[in-house]
Amino acid sequence: MFFPQTQPDVEILEEVDLSTENIKLWSLVIYNDEVNTFDFVIDTLIEVCEHTPEQAEQCTLIIHFKGKCAVKNGEFEELATLRTEVCRRGISAEVHLN
Fold it and tell me: Which of 24, 28, 71, 92 reaches 20 to 30 Å from 45, CA-CA?
């Protein structure tokens, strides 16, 4: 017996452009200083960036030993708001395009 192959019906709900040209990844970068304590930076990352305590501690160690750390990636608008709050607390931070 021969059964012809048929294409299943496919409904396209939304076309999404997956090319990397249209994806802009931004990073919130926090810089080391000699003013803020480890605990203060950890608490800030937990409160502002919604890090777990473990994430916040690891990022703080990277900031201390490497001088900076990209603590969160995402949309520019979201990260700019987080940067404002981090800087308001006296911690140096910038939003960078990856």
Answer: 24
